[in-house]
């Protein structure tokens, strides 16, 4: 049996009409990828399959400084106890070789007085190395070997003290401790500044001691593919800032807004507001400088992914002058306010300058309308207040009793009294 043909042609049916309808571009959701730099500045990078582990032992001091505190304290304690035990064994052997441990030779000369067992040798080893010296045990001039052991233990003890105490000092005075008081705004913003589309962040220093020669570097990290087909998972692109163009360093006395003009050389040149939300880029901010009090170079880092970049926002002012002193309100450090900004990319703004002009004109008109509404509301409120005050005055006047006035008029038959109120 042959299939029955439809009366309506196929090109005018529902499938045909749907296939010919224009479709809007669909932006895929951005895949959540791992951050290269965390918000606190730590690098999200794991080193695996390192075959040459001996390279870390060639730089023992740096390895000890990089270790966690619990491992450092364990190594610190183990090193001193091991050295005391090692030289305690040496002192016990010296006493044993000289015969000081023999009870029959108590009245003869000894290499070390009052060293009669391994425990007393261990206590003498501690006294020698940490220079406690209680006075009960002491070395004599009878044994050359004892004198050599004393010299060797003093030298080894000084080396261990220098390494261990230096390691503890470097861990407590590490540069990343100073970076804890260097703060960044939680969000970055993109807005129009000086008629150019700009990427901006805010940085600040919580301490009064300054960072000398502070510099800020911006890098964009993204996954790219070269024309030859090579995949670069972490492609770092340097981003120029206005501060780097104007001078070599920043005067970080108060919080500053670091501005990057999105021009033709910027990796953000082709990104619009919609494309930014779908991109997988990450902007890394690196703040470097010398600590004024210690002279140690410090570095603070953070990063901003596309979800943390606010398009069409601007940072609110936080520096005010109060009684001749500039005051910084850090409670508003990361606060932003929405401003009128074109949603197109910087390339489209360069190719079509009228977009920016129209946007600025609309912003000016909306600002003027808001001012008119505000002024009209103020006038209405003042008129209501004046009307209310006049009404209350009339109510108060209505409650006042008018006095009676009497007029006396002369008449022929006598005097009539007329009272007029």
How would you describe the overall organization of this protein?
The chain has 421 residues and is an alpha+beta fold. Among the domains are: 67-172, Helix Hairpins, CATH 1.10.287.70; 178-357, G protein-activated inward rectifier potassium channel 1 (Immunoglobulin-like, Sandwich). The chain is built from eleven helices and 15 strands. The protein has helices at 14-20, 54-58, 60-66, 69-98, 118-130, 144-172, 175-178, 242-246, 273-278, 346-351, 353-398, and strands spanning 182-184, 188-193, 196-205, 211-225, 231-239, 256-261, 282-291, 297-305, 309-311, 313-315, 319-322, 325-328, 336-338, 405-410, 415-420. The longest helix has 46 residues, at 353-398. It starts with 13 loop residues before the first helix and ends with a strand. The relative contact order is 0.09. Residues 1-7, 22-28 and 400-421 have low confidence and may be disordered.
